[in-house]
Amino acid sequence: MTSNYLVYLIALPLLGSALLLFAGRKADKWGHLLGTAMSGGAFVIGLYEFSQMLGRSTEQRAVTQKLFSWISVGSFQVDAGLMLDQLSICFVLLITGVGTLIHIYSIAYMSHDLDRRRFFAYLNLFIAAMLLLVLGDSYLNLYVGWEGVGLASYLLIGFWNQKPTYATAAKKAFVANRVGDMGLSLAIMIAFATLGTVSFAGVKEQASQASTGALTAIGIMLLVAATGKSAQFPLQAWLGDAMAGPTPVSALIHAATMVTAGVYLITRSNFIFDAAPTAQLCVAIIGAITLLFGAIIGTAKDDIKKALAASTMSQIGYMVLGAGLGPAGYAFAIMHLLTHGFFKAGMFLGAGSVMHGMDDEVNMRRYGGLSKFMPITFATFGLGYLAIIGVPPFAGFYSKDKIIEVAFNAGGIKGITLGCAALLGAAITAFYMTRVVILTFAGSKRWDDKAHPHESPVLMWLPMALLAIGSVASGFIFTRGNSLKNWLAPVVEQSPVHEGELLKPEVVSVLALVLVLLGVGLAVVKYLRKEIPLVAPTNVSIFTRIARRDLLQDDFNEAVFMKTGQKLTKALVVTDKSIIDGAVRGVAKLVQGSGSALRTTQTGFVRSYAMWILIGAIGLVAAIWVVTL
User: Fold this and answer.
1) Which pLDDT tens digit goes with each residue over 494-545?
2) For residues 468 and 384, what is the distance between their CA atoms, to the nearest angstrom?
3) Which of 306, 467, 592, 596 is 20–30 Å from 398 (CA)?
4) Range of the domain at 203
5) Are residues 351 and 318 in the same domain?
6) Are residues 492 and 575 in the same domain?
């Protein structure tokens, strides 16, 4: 079926961004209202399309819209087209719904910023690009949105680029994402070269007849793209530094939308990964490594936003793990993505609320006892905390436990290894998130006289409250009657969760809950019953020091890539100067020397010219004589 409204989902926020950027200072007084209205309008259109989708049969729910013929070169035919199906509508509602709440929050949070209009223009640009990413009907259309998201995130992370460290953080995020984008570019090229198409429908149709090697190559390249955009190992180093941007950016980009784009890409490409087991196994391994990687980093961060960023890295690792488990895990990966959008966005906004009341202080060691001064922030943040650590009946309990269950039931050593990694990650999550709550809201105050903690205005706590409702109820809604799994069934392959069952769901839930309680208990003993020093102690174990340095990810990148790249560049410069430039200069010197030598023959004396004429004539006669012999 076709729809004429899909383009307006993208057009509204894109128009808002253009108007706010080109209107200049004239729009300062109303720009934030226009930006919020455009995002809200896209949400309304998304709700309309969702209601229409519910009224159609399962086979007729997907709709498309052709905009124009984009590329027509020989056999390479690509239309600029949009597609809305059961998978993309989940993202549309998440992007526009949570995005609009973040716009509302930003009205108050950015009220004193002189460039608030520009900030809302970038937010609208990001929403538009993200919608194009999930609505494109081909990998090439997705790629345009993919790059648009990269640009918008660069602009938002470096919004306060007058600070060199913030500008550097934006550049770091941009470069890391470009490395991942090479993977998506190569995947598109391989798909066209081997399958003759780049549309989702065409690739799905041709995948059954393609070689396993080609599909594995495409899958690996798609995974590289996902690691960059979703901050997965080994391209995760940019996420912590990206917290330099305004806190609403962290909630929008690093919790609910951009960093989940890799999960969308893998799930959308399920037909490739299901036919390429090696690539699918690599997805699961990367997810398992990252969920532990991020969790360990989160235990050592004193910056509240960086602790939440490490948590995001870890939770997306769960999603990637779920997607890497194939037909049994796709639906639960998307479920955790949606529940995470509620509770993590709510906690990031909660962190912004704390910073708002604490004169922009981010060091949790200088918080303490804020629950008395910021009760609404504490309540909403606390609900998100209970959701992320997986306490029943909060959202994370339903989605994360299902991924752990599917991991164990993957079979053999693979299932045991992945399942144990997921369980260990749950325990560490409970520890570091309890640490965040204790350092921020419990205990005695540790701030100085400059801070005057107070509750945030209604435009800030209202979005937090609405997201907290999602943190409580979304998991139950998605799992009731397998509603989300059945909803996604026409788009992704499905298989029984308990095929080759190793552990029953009840056993997984009990194990997870016991480990969560152990993590919570350890954090309580370590942080609630002891005095918290204002400065992080230096006499700590080597493991803590490594965790504080993000498990040496930047050190590794600098040693292996940056310094190696610098040496290679220097070598190329020497080669360029000595060989390439040397050859050019050598030709010039040869011509110059020859000219200088010939110039000496121009003496100005007639007798010299007569001698050369005589020599030339003798030489000519000699040559004729030799030829005629």
Assistant:
1) 776 555 567 788 899 999 999 999 999 999 999 988 888 888 888 888 988 9
2) 6
3) 306
4) 151-542
5) yes
6) no
- Confidence (pLDDT) at 572: 79
User: Which has the higher per-residue pLDDT, 606 or 40?
Assistant: 40
- The tokens for 121 are 């223009």
* Amino acid at site 233: F
Are the beta carbons of 313 and 297 closer than 8 angstroms?
yes
Contacts (Cβ under 8 Å, ≥6 apart) of 408: 415, 416, 418, 419, 502, 503, 508
Q: Does residue 459 share a domain with residue 577?
A: no
Residue 251 lies in a domain: yes
What would the pLDDT profile of 97-127 be if each residue is shown by its tens digit?
999 999 999 999 999 999 999 999 999 999 9
Domain boundary among 479, 514, 542: 542
Sequence-distant (≥ 6) Cβ neighbours of residue 188 within 8 angstroms:
139, 140, 143, 198
Question: Are 288 and 418 in contact, with CB atoms under 8 Å apart?
Answer: yes
Cis peptide before 234 (omega within 30 of 0): yes
Q: Is the dihedral of CA 368, 372, 373, 374 positive or negative?
A: positive
Is there a single domain that holds both residue 483 and residue 436?
A: yes
User: Which contiguous run of DSSP H or E holds residue 68?
Assistant: strand 63-73
* Spatial contact of 194 and 210, defined as CB atoms under 8 Å apart: yes
| Separation between Cα atoms, residue 379 and residue 209, nearest integer Å | 54
Tokens of 490: 């026409």
Question: What single-letter DSSP state applies at residue 455?
Answer: P
- CA angle 557/562/565 to nearest 5° reads 135
As for how many domains the chain has, the answer is 2
In a domain, 99, yes or no: no
Same domain, residue pair 162 and 257: yes
> C-alpha dihedral over 263, 268, 274, 278, to 10 degrees?
-40
Q: Which residues pair with 83 in a beta bridge?
A: 64
Cα torsion 423, 427, 430, 433: sign: negative
**Listed residue (310, 267, 315) closest to 91, CA to CA:** 267
| Per-residue model confidence as pLDDT tens digits over 256-286 | 788 999 999 999 999 999 999 999 999 999 9
The tokens of 335 are what?
A: 């479920």
Question: What pLDDT is stored for residue 500 in this prediction?
Answer: 58
Is the same domain home to 562 and 536?
Answer: no
Query: Does residue 487 share a domain with residue 343?
Result: yes
Q: What are the CA-CA distances from residue 30 to residues 11, 13, 33, 122, 579 (Å)?
A: 20, 15, 5, 15, 60
Reported pTM: 0.90
Domain contains 79: no
Is residue 236 located within the same domain as residue 345? yes
Residue 521 lies in a domain: yes
Burial of 548 (0-12, 13-18, 19+ CB in 10 A): middle
